[in-house]
Amino acid sequence: MQIPSLQGQVALVTGAGRGIGRAIALELARAGATVALTARSEPELQRLAEAIRSEGGQAAVFPADLNDDAQVIGLIAAVAGQLGRLDILVNNAGTSVNQTLEKSSTDDFDLLMRVNLRAPFLLCRESIPHLRAQGGGFIVNIASVVAVKGYANQALYAASKHALLGMSKSLAREVQPDHIRVHVICPGGVATEMVTQMRPDLDPSGLIQPHEIAETVVFLVTRRGRAAIDQIDVRRDTNIPWA
Length: 243
Ligand SMILES: NC(=O)c1ccc[n+]([C@@H]2O[C@H](COP(=O)([O-])OP(=O)(O)OC[C@H]3O[C@@H](n4cnc5c(N)ncnc54)[C@H](OP(=O)(O)O)[C@@H]3O)[C@@H](O)[C@H]2O)c1
What we know:
By secondary structure, this protein is an alpha/beta fold. It has helices spanning 19-30, 42-54, 69-83, 106-133, 155-175, 193-198, 210-222, and strands spanning 10-14, 34-38, 58-61, 88-91, 137-142, 180-187, 231-234. It has a single domain (10-234), classed as NAD(P)-binding Rossmann-like Domain (Rossmann fold), CATH 3.40.50.720.
């Protein structure tokens, strides 16, 4: 079956420089969207933009630190201003701390909450008027299996992802009348730098591959149903309980 085209639509992907975000940006561009790429590392974003253009796609780079409210809020205005509209927001960027709650610092807590929850909150809030202006759109939040489960050494990460899931569930109800669909994907372990740094003992080939999450995103934003899908869990039997 042919994938419906996203031609003419603009998608913002956070954490687009590598890992899952990079794969999502590539697949959205392949589906026809103009992709706005953001993360802190500009060289990574520029390399991805070149890769997208070399395939005939369209991409623009918007470096920003999601730990900084002003930069987060300015991002939506910058994307809509430069690219003319916004149709799809993918809150993918995230960070983790592999530590017991007892040994975690308040700085750890604040960082995880700011990047994993506060930034998606601000980006959702700022993007809604733009999505509404197009007669609807999509917000896809990348949570984690840890949004529904708890594992040792993941208390702060779990708190941020549980909160992201809860926020998304309420938001989905609030914006459904505006034809804005809010989806949450809750992956198990995905073969990215985040995993290899924290669990070098794991064989990446047994994990979910980033393109599988990307294909799920493209599925969600190209099959507009009347009903909302609240939450998608993407898991493998070999899933490891950490992410
Ligand atoms: N990998 C897994 O097993 C797994 C499983 C479930 C859920 N997830 C979730 O999936 C998402 C992507 O994970 P990943 O494995 O692809 O991670 P990753 O390889 O570590 O990439 C994280 C991305 O987020 C960006 N980022 C981090 N902190 C940022 C900040 N302060 N401001 C702006 N951008 C920031 C990074 O870019 P810069 O460093 O250049 O800023 C990078 O592009 C995260 O939300 C993660 O929690 C991952």
